[in-house]
């Protein structure tokens, strides 16, 4: 009996010891944590990104291959991430959105990337290179990109009507009581500005006033339901006929519910990009570069894009996902439109965003 | 006793730092303009005037009070009989029932409210049940019904527990005495039980009305963002509009309304209780 117990204990200790080595020993090609520490200065990478934004095996594969440990933390919004950075929290890699990267660059929160450590930069798709928030890619490497569009039930809504009306379908009383609006001042005012033919980055008070009236009329005549991430489940179940959705979420919805289609309105939309950056106070910038380089490999990018549904920044993966009939070849939400002159990237403007937020709560409060 | 008094200092310090200072900050923000330097304040009533003179915000305030009022009313009407029934169970049954009523509060409120989405939606559990009788589907989600239901569900345990406690503290001999003096069941309930349980009802009302009037995620989730309440306006001022001064002013207005309503509820309590004794 005693023997059995001591054997068991030995087994437990051995397992613990092995686990302590980052689990890299069994995989053959892996390196141990001490090797990694010697190479990068530390074997720990702190990653801060939005929730549900990682490929199934991305982190475990990276840990195995490089013999390191990744600590993942999630944020609900770019603004929340910004507040934590301001408070002095340290991370090695962040994945914020385009406009927030502008704000971080302006505030000297980011360090320039050492491109010699990221040879896989050559894998980037041309659509995500040279975007306005960081034109030379000095500070950031794209992670996911997409658009905002309309998911609609093509059994109840005629596709030709959706194409013809664009964003204005959200004020077409034929569909009153059957629409979901994404509850964010940024996306709502974007639709209104686009529907009116203005730039979504306008700060002209007359144009803002017109957009406000556009949204008021929508609120007062259409009885819209304001949702955030619940929209994914609800549209999968076909609860409403039209919804404003981010393209990656739309990909997932279309994949689950065959009655749903996706349209990018002709008046133009927001093309956005979330990208990896390294903050100035990162404790392990070398490993951060290694991680960024790793994400750009075919396998890691494929894992990311096929798990999450957003468009890949990796040219090969993007091509495979959008042409392979087993994958998303028939899913019109996957590949965002590119090169359309009415589409825009959102630029950072704190004063404008606050102004729009004040108007947005008034739109919703009126009933 | 002096040595004991000095032992309260840590608590006084704690209360000062965690409650008094933040309250004063809210007052300071409410009466100043935005864009202040650290040391110069420009005092103003603008934030209050802006809220009170705005038709949309007045409607929001009215809607919040209305929904909180109905939530509280339903909680009293449902909670009192439940508490009364529990108080008359055997000791064992009472323990089990109180456990059952408190148990849902062990789960996070947000999670429980999310569950209602699945129950109330058009093809949800409740509509499937109604469908068995050939009714529906009835649209329940994103209506004021859903918002009030969500609030009653979340806050009614506070009401039941308060009333139950005050019923339990009551001396059962008083009922025997009432019967001895010729009161029937209805009379002894109205003249003995009810007045003696009123303090429980009043603290129950306070515990339900307060969170109901300032709730913001229940209307957001179950009301589909269409039922913007004061809590939502305050939230947006701090989180996205960055207008802390206006947000603080609204918070202060709410605090005053709540204090006034508590004052009047307690007055009713005192007058009814003393009326019962005479």
CATH architecture of the largest domain in chain A: 3-Layer(aba) Sandwich
Strand content of chain B: under 5%
Mean pLDDT of chain B: 87
CATH topology of the domain at 55-241 in chain B: MetI-like fold
**Span of the ends, CA to CA of chain A:** 75 Å
User: What overall geometry of chain B do the principal axes of the alpha carbons give?
Assistant: globular
Residues in helices of chain A, as a percent range: 40-55%
- What would CATH call the class of the domain at 55-241 in chain B? Mainly Alpha
Q: Portion of residues in helices of chain B?
A: over 70%
SSE class of chain B: mainly alpha
The main pleated sheet of chain A reads as: 6 strands, mixed
Proportion of residues in β-strands of chain A: 5-15%
Reading off the top of the CATH hierarchy, the class of the largest domain in chain A is best stated as Alpha Beta
Largest interface: A-B, 24 and 26 residues
Give me the number of helical elements of chain A: 14
In CATH terms, the superfamily of the largest domain in chain A is Periplasmic binding protein-like II
Runs of chain B with pLDDT <50, length 5+? none
Overall number of domains of chain A: 2
Structure in words:
With 367 residues, chain A is of the alpha/beta class. Chain A folds into 2 domains: 2-145 and 272-323, Periplasmic binding protein-like II (D-Maltodextrin-Binding Protein, domain 2, 3-Layer(aba) Sandwich); 146-271 and 335-365, D-Maltodextrin-Binding Protein, domain 2 (3-Layer(aba) Sandwich), CATH 3.40.190.10. Chain A is built from 14 helices and 9 strands. Chain A has helices at residues 2-20, 33-40, 58-66, 78-86, 98-106, 159-165, 185-195, 205-222, 230-236, 247-256, 285-295, 298-308, 315-323, 350-365, and strands at residues 44-50, 69-75, 93-94, 140-153, 179-182, 225-227, 242-246, 260-263, 271-277. In chain A, the strands form 2 sheets. In chain A, strands 4, 5, 6, 7, 8 and 9 form a 6-stranded mixed β-sheet that branches. A 3-stranded parallel β-sheet of chain A has the order 2-1-3. In chain A, helix 8 (205-222) packs parallel to helix 14 (350-365), helix 9 runs parallel beside helix 10 (247-256) and helix 12 crosses helix 13. The longest helix of chain A is centred in the N-terminal third of the chain and has 19 residues, at 2-20. Chain A starts with a helix and ends with a helix. Chain B has helices at 2-6, 9-30, 46-53, 55-87, 91-102, 109-120, 125-131, 144-169, 173-180, 185-214, 217-222, 230-239, 244-277. Chain B has a domain at 55-241: Orthogonal Bundle (MetI-like fold), CATH 1.10.3720. In chain B, helix 2 (9-30) packs across helix 13 and helix 4 runs antiparallel to helix 10 (185-214). The mean pLDDT of chain B is 87. Chain B contains 13 helices and no strands. With 278 residues, chain B is mostly helical. Chain B starts with a helix and ends with a helix.
